[in-house]
Amino acid sequence: MKLRSNEPYWLVRNGLLHTYPSLQQDIEVDVVVIGAGITGSLIAHRCVQDGFSTAVIDRREVAHGSTSATTSMLQYEIDVQLHELIGLIGEGPAVAAYRACADSIGQLETVCRTVGGDTGFRRKRSLYFAAWKKDVDKLRNEYEARRQHGFPVRWLTAPAIARRFGLESTHGGILSDIGASVDAFRLAHHVLQHATRRGLQVYDKTNIVRIAPGRKGTTITTEEGHTVRCGKVVHCTGFESTEVLGHDHVDLLSTYAMVSEVMPAAVRKLKDTLVWNTADPYLYMRTTDDGRLLVGGGDEEFARADRRDGLIAHKVDLLEKQIGRLLPEVPFRTDFAWAGTFGSTPDGLPCIGRHPQHPGAYFVLGFGGNGITFSVIGMDMVSAWLAGRKHPLEQAFRFGR
Ligand SMILES: Cc1cc2nc3c(=O)[nH]c(=O)nc-3n(C[C@H](O)[C@H](O)[C@H](O)COP(=O)(O)OP(=O)(O)OC[C@H]3O[C@@H](n4cnc5c(N)ncnc54)[C@H](O)[C@@H]3O)c2cc1C
């Protein structure tokens, strides 16, 4: 699957941070993590911390899948609003899922501190504004639901939003204290480097073609014919999990992102805030450390790569117009634009757990606009399961729910 178009900003900016060998011998470990994106890196890091001999294997270069295309906004607010999620899965699990996402931001901060290096992690607020007047009542309900369940939120009127953030044409919105942004590409590299120094084996450019569970563990075979024997397999294969699981668990879409030229003064008011709105598809934005505005949106309900990438110029036009209306004072000029595959589930929650057709394996598949926060939650879940414990979110995130 072609997960993204060429030229995502993070790849251009960071280049090839580290490179790893392909697997050229047979090995035996406790845990194999398939996929060295942000999810696989975090899971492998935790497995090493928990004392398991671990190998991560990726068919591409490390972090060259969706992780190089993400806009890396870290939000506890998932694509399905809390009051709606309560209606879908019940109050207890819905609030627990939102809380876990909120906690995951602090957990990721700890990971960043532990692994060191500049991962671009910055605590930020998050502004969720009503794009249309008709959205205000629903957004007010959401504000009440979040407030009632103890999330630190304030309602801002449209003039207050304009004054504080320079955003025009809004209809009010929720300002949340919890949020952050990161450079997921760098973070994945730093996490893997840190874990490698503690015994993690990393192999890239190694395609896994066969996974055979047996009574005494699982044997994995690579395209070049080498085998990996292990106790457990953790699939962190992102949207390419459809190669193994089919399409029942996720709808694949296309999404678009672009980043402006460097303009720190013009985006000063947005420096500490993530912004997204209630439009469908929604528009979202954040700043980067070097003073650019990073904007995403324009989702399309198909995932065919040639069709997706063919629309980049059109989407840039569309998103630039939207930014022009919202931020009339900001002279947005696009420097890089790209497209990526994206996955969504009806309840906005990830699929993390066992799959009935794949014994001896766990899957950590973070879908929706919160893929990265879900990956952080996945660390705790996998850690609990490998230690023989249950996890409170395993029912809410299970396959086939
Ligand atoms: C434009 C865009 C904007 C986004 N914005 C956000 C955002 O703001 N916040 C957020 O949280 N999320 C966002 N996301 C989603 C986020 O990017 C993903 O959730 C995240 O990158 C997934 O990481 P991953 O490690 O699971 O997948 P990937 O980075 O795709 O890694 C999976 C890896 O598995 C490897 N693999 C697959 N099959 C095999 C195999 N058989 N053998 C060996 N290796 C294999 C692949 O090569 C790949 O490197 C966005 C996505 C896009 C495209």
Task: Summarize the entry for a quick read.
The chain has 401 residues and is α+β, with helices and mostly antiparallel strands. The chain is built from eleven helices and 19 strands.
Would you write up a description of this structure?
By secondary structure, this protein is an alpha+beta fold. It folds into two domains: 250 residues, 3-Layer(bba) Sandwich (FAD/NAD(P)-binding domain); 147 residues, 2-Layer Sandwich (D-Amino Acid Oxidase, Chain A, domain 2). The strands form three sheets. Strands 1, 2, 9, 10, 11, 12, 18 and 19 form an eight-stranded mixed sheet that branches. Strands 6-7-5-14-15-16-13-17 form an eight-stranded mixed sheet. Strands 3-8-4 form a three-stranded antiparallel sheet, with no helix packed on it. Strand 11 and strand 12 form a beta hairpin. The longest helix is centred in the first third of the chain and has 25 residues. The radius of gyration is 21 Å and the shape is globular. The model has no long low-confidence stretch (mean pLDDT 96). The structure holds flavin-adenine dinucleotide. Flavin-adenine dinucleotide binds next to helix 2, strand 13, strand 17 and helix 11.
